[in-house]
Write a structure and sequence with these properties.
The chain is of the alpha+beta class. It has 50 helices and 50 strands. The chain has nine domains: about 170 residues, HRDC domain (DNA polymerase, domain 1); about 230 residues, Ribonuclease H-like superfamily/Ribonuclease H (Nucleotidyltransferase, domain 5); about 240 residues, Nucleotidyltransferase, domain 5; about 160 residues, HRDC domain (DNA polymerase, domain 1), CATH 1.10.150.80; about 210 residues, Ribosomal Protein S5, domain 2; about 70 residues, Polyribonucleotide nucleotidyltransferase, RNA-binding domain (Arc Repressor Mutant, subunit A), CATH 1.10.10; about 220 residues, Ribosomal Protein S5, domain 2 (2-Layer Sandwich); about 60 residues, K Homology domain, type 1 (Ribosomal Protein S8, Chain: A, domain 1, 2-Layer Sandwich); and more. The strands form twelve sheets. An eight-stranded antiparallel β-sheet has the order 26-25-27-28-41-40-38-39, with helices on both faces. Strands 3-6-5-4-7-8 form a six-stranded mixed β-sheet, with helices on both faces. Strands 11-14-13-12-15-16 form a six-stranded mixed β-sheet, sandwiched between helices. α11 runs antiparallel to α16, α27 packs antiparallel against α29 and α49 runs antiparallel to α50. The chain is flat. InterPro entries: 3'-5'_exonuclease_dom, ExoRNase_PH_dom1, ExoRNase_PH_dom2, ExoRNase_PH_dom2_sf, HRDC-like_sf, HRDC_dom, HRDC_dom_sf, KH_dom. One of its GO terms (molecular function) is single-stranded RNA binding. This is polyribonucleotide nucleotidyltransferase. Belongs to the polyribonucleotide nucleotidyltransferase family.
């Protein structure tokens, strides 16, 4: 029920005038999103463009550290101040800001007395002056005058804690900030002790903060001098603090783990991220009430939570209308207290309002109405209340762990500890508020995305398509192989000194951004002999990295090629130029550039000179380009752009200059170095390698590298930086491996760098802490990691699964610890050796130390840089191109049961060991699969090799990850159940199902039914339970398990060939159940995969999915929690080609919506089947295609010859029994004729001319089988050709219907429903809770059913004899279908508190008995007085699919209301139940390989018309349903009491309840924790009596109430005990008994006396304190026996309030 809108306009006069009202400020408090009208919209209109997006962070950074110490500004008192209160002053302020390069800004806001908050002041300081702007007076003018100044990227704005100020500027003034420095972020990066402004002022400026004004009301006018001073101090010293911090940041070392983010860059990046936030107005949703502070800890039940939700809505509406803060209208704490107490009178509500709340006081009646209405609608809040309690327990546990961790001594600085504590508290509040602030998560798009750059991040090796292969195809041929190093060496030394080129500024420059310019560049390069080359790359926000720029310089001109815009064209136009051996390419540090050219452009370089290698050979002091420029060219290195983001466009002039300097001087440096190399002496130890040849050889080897894509291997996790020093155990190392592979997968999928997805340091920290809840994981994520935050549950599942597979990683953990100890020892020895005086020259010693450091890093990271290890070889034989392919990782797969545990850690294998090729089978899947690999393997030093014994033992073990919905299922085969014909283990989350398929070796006799048995069982151990009975073994199959068995059988049977008679058994068992992921659809898929992998000759792969409808969106395989909110429960099984089985239930869903859901499910099934087919093609067993037992083909012709004409006549008999008898007689005739051996002897002599009618007699079973098939075919032909069915009906015609009610006088409700020859007797029984059906399931969440339908199909209903006993699988399935069809029309438990049992006894059957149960059950429910929402009818539809075989035109024919013979001979049985508006239940079985969606649509629409006709016939029921409770039905009265009063009703050991039942004669009293009391009785009088007793027991006394005619129950020395109501006794103290002083009550009172008393107090224990004295007149007698009244007989009705 919605909350009535509060009328609050009349209250303003009494609330008090707020200061802002005199300014006429207008705000939009509607529930519509905030519109950023001052921002431009993107071309596609999908988003707003922030002005900061046009700039890179590097545009704002000045990396020059001044030698001059920053100067502290003069005190506030001696600095000029301007208070801006008019437009003139605002204009002057703008003029001064335009002349400044930087200024400090802060805002003062007020959040308390307005809905969105108000900006009250703006403080601005330049280097010489302070300004305070009155934003209340100038609110409409500030934006137009200051917007451009704040947007100007050339002016730096310094702010402290800018998060809220940025938002307020946007909200109130439409101002968006560019180029901002946040001193709070700088404090955090510099790891100051605190990051508050008070600390910074005190620490750096020696200024004491005036904290008394921190929470001042800044709306007040005029401002006091103290307030003005406090406001000025917020910005007065901020520029000075900025100078100090920037200087410190420039001098701080860069974190080696993030070399691309120096401290200063980090601060500017954080500040830019803050600026990029966009304000979002608070939007109220259905779940907004969950954000109330303290809600988790309140421990509310559903009624209380309903009150919270409705009061929250009222508060929100009121606050928006009057522009008031919600905490002023009704504080969270008071709101929760009201919900806890649930006051239902205004008096009780007033008692709760301890302080004045004007809007509540003026609307007491409305608030009480909201409370009472909410209590009636509490059922919907049960799941939420339960969830809140669970989360509160998790939060409390996490908090305890956090507190314990804080108390532990650790090597963490105090500042970090403080920061962590703040983050933890903040996080706890965020969890408590569910997704508070989630909408503020604005992520900068990556610049490269607008160029639509496509990259292949798959696990397939990189293909060098531009290289030729050798004749045998074994290797690739690099174009450089045709030449020797000596071909490129010119040993002529010129006498002329190389000439330094002119400066960059005076050299012609061309920025190449289009194909025309690229062609011109290629032409110029073809005309030159040498040119220098460099590339600018970005590795941080893409998986493989991206080449952003290509810089080229000739002797006279510089070029920069935009590699983003021309990515596709660069290779086409420049490939031949780079390949040309006559042209020398000069590069510096070419190792990576060579690989990037191959990867991005398919360019391979010949004839290259690397100045980096020349620097090493010449043994220069350094080999960096900065050193060479400074040393040879006297050009200072501009290092500030070394780590710039080269993806940003447009490039600034400074960035272009920096890029040009990479190549501009390189040819000159080449000339100098080549001259030096030629003049340098040859090393006598290597006379064959003079220095110049050495450089060319090294450059040659670099060119010969071939790019290899990063392939994840089973040992890749060992490359994580800091792994050895982390000292991890086996469990932690297993987590590292799993997370490493998850990170790799995500990075490939979204083309993101792994360090952005999850940095190594954070990954190791997670592994150390091993969090097992999302809350604990979030505590570890101190900075934002978006991709991890979106997959918290999945990360937790990886962690928990990894821990279970930790044994495999124990050897590796041990080995890593040993290596770490050895490394430390080696390092200590090395440092000692460096310090010793040796005979080695200093330069050599230094070189050795450097080499040792490099080696240590390589060893520490195991295989880091292994592919860069190129050995120098002079011989031409060394020119070899090697491609190394690596084995895919098992680490992540091990988390889900792969055989990662069968591995040995082998670091002793030799480097020269032969490279082996090992294939791990998998299926290439889209997201979120985690294997896309079929790669060769290399076992090298330091690798963990697979255990060969394990590989041999499980050689057919395969794992497949299949995406389904928003997650994936994991299929494993070849490890468990290897002796079965087919077996799989399938996993969804924590739910695991094992399915096996076996079949007999010998074929059974032919029959018309496939001998297939399906057994499905949910083992209680899967949920950590065991049977509660004496026998602990799983017993009789449960109804739910029967239903799943039927679903699997109905899905698989259509795909089996008709003549396959090997007995087949499918066993499916639930081994693990997590309570979240359902097992039924998973079991269908598991059975389909197992059959597909086995020898059973099925025609199609089968899979199943569930589809729910949640918030009007279809969800594939929703969780059990999501299904509680779903309006649809559709289970569909099918194959790639069509639909095989459907079963589902919904809440009056239209057919059109149902068809959409079927299409969604069909697409999901097709995707699964495609992946499974790939697995089956590779690893499935050969099908037994030669095991069919086919009847002789000629037998069909013989049967038709004998029975054809007579069969046509028999099939036109309308009645079932005569037709069946005629068919039986004809069948005997046919069998007799075709199986007898005719005599060939006449009169004792052999008749030589005898020709037998049937040369070979046939087996009786074959004849019977063929006869049935011929009968079916004739029936189909009759329908197709004649358009008439056996009983003479047309295709859409419904059989005759008769119904009556009340024909069983003693039943609570009864109905007889007859449709043709199908008849159901439906009986309804009503009862209380004791009659409910108890259920024993895995999780025990629904332990009782208060509505159930039991279907009975005795053999007598078809005129036969059969077993009598437990219900069959068919009876259970049909009963459940009818039950679920009727359930949506039932009233709520609040409206009809009865348990309802429906029995459907089938007394005749000729098709559609389950749908007859629906119709009969509906009439019986109405007859029992159950107030149904609408009538429900059901119909069964049939199908003749392939009409061409029966002489038709091929159009499928849909049959309405099919009979038994049409069901047996047709292709489909579709049962649909519902009303005129929609469907409530549906079920479909087919006998063909699948039907299309169009056929399904036709059948559903035809069924709708049939339902309407049946509903019309049901209205003609005679006699009609009574629609009122039968006189035999019990009466149930529902009462609501305070939850804490329930124990008073029950009493000690149930004493009070038993007493009530005995005293009043009621049958049962049911009490619930939420205060609901249900009384069951056979008569009304006993109900009313019990109600009165319970009302008195739970009566809530109120101080001041008077109770008359009360009996004294006990007299004691200090007073008397008086019963004011049954079971409620209070004490009247001796001092309160009489006006006169009384020493003892014994003389004046005795037990049984009747007195009037007043309740004067309820003490803290809840005891009642009464007074008789206060009711006595001042004069008169005090004899208690003078006024004797019977109990309950008083002038005011027994009880009145004062």
């Amino acid at each position: 029920m919605g909350t009535p809108k509060a009328k609050v306009s009349f209250q303003l006069a009494s609330v008090g005038r707020r200061p802002q009202e005199e300014y006429g400020i207008r705000v939009d408090n509607s529930n519509n999103p905030f519109e950023h009208v001052w921002l431009q919209t993107s071309e596609d209109g999908s988003r707003r463009i922030h002005p900061l997006e046009k700039h890179s962070v590097m545009d704002f950074i000045n990396k020059t550290a001044s030698d001059v110490e920053p100067v502290k500004p003069p005190p506030v008192e001696s600095t000029s101040l301007k208070v801006v209160q008019d437009v003139k002053g605002l204009k002057e302020l703008v003029a001064k800001l335009c002349g400044a390069n930087e200024f400090a800004v802060n805002l003062k806001g007020n959040q308390y007395r307005s809905f969105q908050g108000l900006t009250c002041l703006m403080q601005i300081s330049t280097r010489t002056e302070d300004f305070i702007v009155d934003t209340l007076k100038l609110r409409v003018h500030i934006g137009p005058y200051l917007r451009e100044v704040f947007k100007d990227p050339t002016k730096r704005k310094v702010m402290h804690g800018a998060d809220q100020c940025i938002i307020w500027l946007q909200r109130d003034f439409g101002i968006y900030v560019c180029n901002m420095f946040d001193t709070v972020q700088a404090s955090k990066v510099l790891k100051f002790e605190e990051n508050s402004l008070e600390f910074l002022l005190r620490h750096f400026c020696k200024v004491a903060a005036h904290e008394e004004y921190e929470n001042a009301d800044w709306r007040l006018r005029p401002l006091t001098d103290e307030m003005l001073r406090y406001a000025r101090e917020d910005t007065h010293y901020l520029l000075f603090l900025y100078d100090l911090m920037q200087r410190r940041l420039l001098l701080s070392p860069t974190d080696p783990e993030c070399p691309e983010a120096p401290p200063l860059v980090e601060v500017y990046q954080r500040s830019s991220d803050i600026c990029m936030q966009l304000y979002q107005k608070e939007i109220s949703t259905e779940n907004s009430y969950l954000n109330i502070y303290g809600l988790h800890a309140a421990d509310l039940h559903a009624q209380q939570l309903a009150i919270v939700a409705e009061l929250y809505k009222w508060r929100d509406a009121t606050a928006r209308e009057v522009d008031e803060s919600t905490c002023y209208i009704l504080p969270d704490k008071v709101l929760i207290e009201i919900a806890k107490q649930m006051p239902v009178t205004t008096l009780k509500l007033c008692h709760l309002l301890k302080s004045r709340h004007p809007y509540i006081v003026r609307n007491l009646g409305l608030v009480v109405t909201i409370i009472t209405n909410s209590m009636q609608n509490a059922v919907a809040f049960e799941p939420v209340a339960k969830k809140l309690k669970e989360e509160h327990f998790d939060m409390r546990d996490a908090k305890n762990v956090t507190v314990a961790n804080r108390k532990e001594p650790a090597e963490v600085a105090g500042s970090e500890s403080t920061s962590n504590a703040v983050e933890d508290d903040t996080f706890e509040k965020e969890v408590g508020n569910f997704e508070v602030g989630a909408n503020q998560n604005h992520k900068l798009g990556r610049p490269q995305e607008k160029y639509n750059i496509r990259v292949d991040n798959s696990y397939r090796p990189f293909e060098h398509v531009w290289l030729q292969r050798s004749e045998d195809g074994s290797r690739l041929i690099h174009p450089f192989e045709e030449y020797s190093v000596m071909d490129f060496i010119d040993k002529t030394v010129s006498d002329v000194e190389p000439v330094k080129p002119p400066p960059v500024e005076t050299t012609p420059f061309k920025l190449v951004q289009d194909v025309k310019d690229l062609k011109e560049l290629a032409t110029k390069l073809r005309d030159t002999d040498e040119f220098s080359v460099a590339l600018k790359q970005n590795q941080h926000r893409s998986f493989q990295g991206l080449t952003c720029l290509m810089q080229i310089s000739t002797r006279t001109e510089d070029f920069i090629v935009d590699a983003f815009k021309l990515r596709v064209q660069i290779g086409l136009y420049l490939r031949e130029v780079f390949k040309d051996p006559t042209k020398r390419k000069v590069m510096h540090g070419a190792d990576r550039c060579i690989l990037w050219l191959q990867r991005d452009f398919g360019i391979y370089v010949c004839n290259m000179f690397d100045t980096g290698q020349a620097s090493k050979v010449l043994k220069l002091e350094e080999d960096s380009l900065e050193y060479l420029l400074s040393h040879f060219c006297e050009v200072p290195a501009n290092e500030e752009y070394n780590n710039a983001d080269w993806r940003v466009r447009p490039l600034t002039d400074a960035m272009l200059r920096h890029a040009r300097e990479d190549t501009h001087y390189l040819l000159f440096i080449y000339d100098l170095m080549r001259r030096r190399l030629l003049l340098s002496p040859t090393d006598p130890e290597r006379p064959e390698a003079p220095p110049v040849i050495e450089v060319y050889q090294r450059s040659y080897n670099i060119c010969m590298q071939l790019y290899q894509k990063d392939i994840l291997t089973e040992n890749s996790y060992l490359n994580i930086y800091g792994l050895r020093a982390a000292d991890l155990n086996g469990q932690q190392l297993a987590i590292v491996a799993g997370l490493c592979e998850l990170r790799d997968y995500i990075a490939r999928e979204v083309d993101e760098s792994t360090c952005y997805i999850l940095p190594d340091k954070v990954l190791i920290e997670i592994a150390k802490k091993m969090p097992v809840t999302t809350l604990k994981l979030c505590h570890i994520l101190k900075r934002r990691h978006p991709y991890i935050e979106r997959n918290l549950d999945f990360v937790i599942s990886i962690i928990t699964n990894s821990v279970q597979k930790a044994a495999a990683f124990e050897p590796a953990a041990k080995k890593l610890k040993e290596e770490h100890i050895e490394m430390i020892a080696t390092r200590n020895i090395k440092f000692a050796n460096v310090e010793e005086a040796t005979e080695v020259e200093g330069s050599e010693s230094t070189s050795n130390v450097v080499e040792d450091d490099t080696f240590e890093k390589k060893v520490g990271n195991v295989i880091v840089g292994a592919n860069q290890n190129h050995k120098l070889e002079v011989s031409s034989a060394s020119r070899i191109s090697i491609e190394v392919h690596k084995k895919p990782s098992c680490a992540f797969g091990a988390m889900f049961g792969n055989e990662a545990g069968k591995r040995k850690y082998n670091l002793e294998s030799k480097a020269a060991e032969e490279i082996k090729v090992v294939h791990k089978h998998s299926v290439s899947l889209p997201s979120p699969s985690f294997t896309d690999r079929t790669e060769p393997s290399r076992e090298s030093d330091g690798a963990i090799a697979p255990d060969k014994e394990a590989t041999t033992l499980f050689s057919d073990y395969h794992t497949v990850y299949i995406p389904v919905g928003d997650r994936h299922i994991i299929v494993e085969t070849g490890k468990i159940g290897r002796q079965a014909s087919g077996s799989v283990t399938i996993r969804d989350g924590g739910t695991i199902i094992y399915t096996s398929v076996c079949m007999s070796n010998v074929s059974s006799e032919p029959s018309d039914l496939l001998p297939m048995i399906v057994h499905y069982q949910e083992r209680l151990s899967a949920a950590g339970k065991t049977s509660g009975g004496y026998f602990k073994r799983e017993g009789r199959i449960k109804d739910h398990e029967v239903l799943v068995c039927r679903q699997i059988d109905r899905a698989l049977r259509p795909t089996m060939p008709k003549d396959f008679y090997h007995e087949t058994q499918i066993r499916s068992e639930v081994w693990s159940y997590d309570g979240l992921h359902s097992s039924d659809s998973l079991a269908i898929t598991a059975a389909g995969i197992a059959v597909a992998l086995s020898e059973v000759p099925n025609t199609n792969t089968v899979a199943g999915v569930r589809v729910g409808l949640i918030d009007d969106k279809f969800v594939v395989n929703p969780t059990t929690m999501e299904m509680k909110e779903s309006k649809l429960d559709l289970l569909l099984a099918g194959s790639e080609s069509g639909i095989l089985m459907i079963e589902g239930y919904c809440d009056f869903l239209p057919e059109e919506k149902l068809l959409q859901a079927i299409e969604v499910a069909k697409d999901a099934v097709r995707a699964i089947c495609e992946q499974v087919d790939n697995l089956v093609k590779k690893h499935g067993k050969p099908k037994l295609l030669d095991s069919f037992k086919l009847p002789p083909p000629e037998l069909y012709k013989h049967v038709e010859e004998i029975a054809g004409d007579e069969l046509v006549k028999i099939l036109q008999i309308k009645d079932k029994i005569p037709r069946r008898e005629a068919l039986s007689s004809l069948a005997e005739k046919v069998v007799s004729r075709l199986t007898q051996v005719e005599e060939s002897v006449v009169d004792g002599e052999f008749d030589e001319g005898y020709v037998p009618l049937f040369p070979n007699h046939f087996y009786p079973k074959d004849v019977k089988l063929v006869f049935k098939r011929v009968c079916s075919e004739y029936l189909r032909k009759q329908i197709v050709k004649g358009g008439k069915r056996s009983d003479g009906r047309t295709l859409e015609e419904i059989r005759g219907i008769y119904s009556e009610c009340r024909f069983l006088p003693s039943a609570h409700g009864s109905a007889l429903f007859t449709r043709g020859e199908t008849q159901s007797v439906a009986v309804v029984t009503l009862g209380d809770k004791r009659m409910a059906q108890r259920i024993d399931n895995l999780v025990g969440t629904e332990d009782v059913k208060k509505f159930y339908l039991q279907y009975s199909f005795p053999s007598s209903c078809v005129g036969g004899v059969g077993r009598i006993g437990a219900p069959s699988r068919r009876e259970i399935g049909h009963g459940t279908l009818a039950e679920r069809a009727l359930k949506p029309c039932l009233p709520s438990e609040d409206d009809f508190p009865y348990t309802i049992r429906v029995e459907s006894n089938i007394t005749e059957s000729n098709g559609s008995s389950s749908m007859a149960s629906v119709c009969g059950g509906c009439l019986a429910l109405q007859d029992a007085g159950v107030p149904l929402k609408s009538s429900i009818a059901g119909i069964a539809m049939g199908l003749v699919l392939d009409t061409q075989e029966s002489g038709g035109d091929g159009t499928p024919l849909i049959l309405s209301d099919i009979t038994g013979s049409e069901d047996a001979s047709g292709d489909m049985d579709l049962k649909v139940a519902g009303n005129e508006d929609g469907v409530t239940a549906f079920q479909m079985d087919i006998k063909v390989g699948g039907i299309t969606l169009s056929t399904m649509k036709q059948a559903l629409l035809q069924a709708k018309e049939g339902r309407k006709r049946i509903l019309a016939e049901m209205l003609k029921c005679s006699p009609p349903p009574s629609k009122k409770l039968a006189k035999h039905a019990p009466l149930i009265l529902v009462m609501k009491v305070e939850p804490d009063k329930v124990n008073l009703i029950i009493g000690s050991g149930g004493r009070n309840v038993k007493s009530i039942i005995k005293e009043t004669g009621v049958e049962y009293v049911d009490t619930q924790d939420n205060g609901t009391v249900k009384i069951t009785s056979r008569d009304l009088a006993s109900l009313e009596k019990a109600k009165a007793i319970i009302s008195n027991l739970t009566m809530v006394p109120i101080v001041g109430d008077v109770y008359r005619n009360c009996k004294i129950t006990a007299v004691v020395r200090f007073g008397v005990f008086i019963e004011i109501a049954p079971g409620r006794v209070g004490l009247c103290h001796v001092s309160e008994l009489s006006l006169d002083q009384m020493s003892t009550p014994y003389d004046a009172f005795k037990v049984g006396d009747i007195v009037d008393v007043k309740l004067i107090k309820i003490n803290e224990k809840g005891q009642l304190c009464l007074s008789r004295k206060q009711l006595l007149p001042d004069q008169g007698t005090d004899n208690p026996n003078k006024s004797q009244r019977t109990a309950g007989g008083s002038n005011d009705g027994g009880r009145s309030g004062c």
